[in-house]
Structures are given as structure tokens and as C-alpha cells.
Amino acid sequence: MKILVTASPLQRDQNHPSMELLRSGGYELCWNTTGKPLSGDALIEHLKGCCGCLAGVDFFTKDVLSACPELRVISRYGVGYDRVDIEAARELGIAVSNTPGVNAQSVGELTMGLLLAVARRIPQLDRSTRNGQWAQYTGVELFGKTVAILGFGAIGRVVARCCAGFGMHVTAWSPHIDQNYCVTNGIEVRPFPEILEAADVVTLHMPLTEETRNLIGVEAIARMKPGAILLNTARGGIVDEDAACAALKEGQLGGFGLDAFSVEPPGDSPLFDLPNVVVTPHTGSHTREGTNQMAFLSARNLLDLLEGRLCSHRIC
Predict the structure, then answer these.
(1) Percent of the chain, pLDDT > 90?
(2) pTM to 2 decimals?
(3) I need a labelling partner for 183 at 20 to 30 A (CA). Which of 44, 94, 132, 231 fits?
(4) Is residue 316 part of a domain?
């Protein structure tokens, strides 16, 4: 019995103890050697003979799932599952699981790193100083600023705590927000889109769904304060990147920090030419602690589902 492992951190550490869990169960592991997310025929080819997949951010469309009759389980290494056709998986009897919560601290901390990098242009100043320049840039302080956290699950709460530590005024919006938690922790709940209007910083922490696709587009950006900072460490597709690019050039957005792109890898994005943009390669969860926890949980989920045990992180 074979299991395909496509999560990128595990490609670099194929002897991680979590992989020994799978091997000790009698499973042969095979790997994505392409260095990028799999889709279409390439994913079908890699899945031949596999009963399970410990999956990164690959594209499990209905056509892919239908072409893999031996596939029984997709265990997502991460929280989001927007690249898995859940309805098709359910119809085909393929179980899907994820790893909610275990990467929250890692993603939340990267969000703060991007915020500081954008607010003070840290990467650009680093490059210019290394090149012999002594450029000065007048950034903005975070203290006293208002942050709007859109999506208020485990990651959003980490960001809220960090922002509060910087003396920011924390506001939040989510379709199913925990009002009691917000009251207890001094977080102001505001409706969407009004929350955008008062925010100096808007940060996204929600899944990509049909409801959230291009949520931050021309209309939403126009509601923001001129010069507001936008952050996306959630999923590409929540932000209309063309609209964001235009707003950055016009000054409506003061900066954009993003760890997720509509197309990954993004190729030659026009965002790369802008001085008020800081980018990272979808690496929010990639800390030693975060990857370790996700590796073990995704491996346990996979084994539980393959062997007929209860899995509390099962999606379908």
C-alpha cells in the first residue's frame, strides 16, 4: 500500500518521525519531486496505486479524484482545503481531513512580521544598505493604530494578541464570531464592510470560498482609509491582486504584505515591482514548531482514516 506525500517541508525531511509513523503501519511512501504543487495529469500520475495522500496545496479536482479509484484518504497538511473538491470527494467516498489550530502561532507571528516589514520598509532598507546606500524612509508606528482582523479563528486570535501587545486598537469581523471571547479580551466587533473604513491595517485570516473570493476588491479597497496597510497570510484569491496593485500605485493602499497568491508560484507578478509590497512564498506555517505539529497531526489523521478509526478532524 502506497501513500503520496506532497507537503513541501516533508519533501526536505523525508525521515521526519511522523513519516516513520506511516512506514511503521506498513505503507510505502512516495514523493512529489517537482518542487511545486501538483495538479491535473501530474497529480493523477503521482497518485497511481496510492490509497492515501498527505497533501500540501495540490489541486484535487473532480477529474483528478475520479481518475484515482484506489485513493481513499486525503489528509491536508494545513488548515485550508479550498483546493480539494469536497463535494466530489464525498460522492466518491474519499475521506478528507485537515490540521486546524496547530499552525496558528506560526502564521500569526509571520503576519506581524509582514506588518512590521511593510510599515517600516525593512526588506527594501536592508537591500539598499547592503548596496552601499544610506537611504532614509519615514515609516509609521503601530501604536494607537486600528487593526481590522477579518476572520477570527485561531490565527486571528493570535494576531489580536500580538496587535494588542503593540498598543493597537483591535477590531474583528467574522461570519460566526465568538462575541463572548471578544468582550472578555477587549476586541471590538464591527460589521463588514464598515470595519474597513476605520482601519489603518486590514489583515485576512479566513478560508477561500465562493463567498470570500475577491472579498477585498475594488469596492472594499475604496472603503479603506487612504494609505491603509493590507495583509494576506490566508489564501490567494481572497484579494483581487489587480485591484490591490492599482490601489498601491495610486496611494489608496499604503502597503501590502502577502504570503498567499492567486496563482502559486506567482511567476512575474506586477506586485513585485512596487516598493510598498513585501512578499513571502506561502510560508506562514513553516516554523520548526508549526511544521512538526502539522506533520504529526496530518500523519495521525491519515492513519486513523485509512484504518477505520474516529478522526476528529475529518471534513468529509
Answers:
(1) 89
(2) 0.86
(3) 231
(4) no
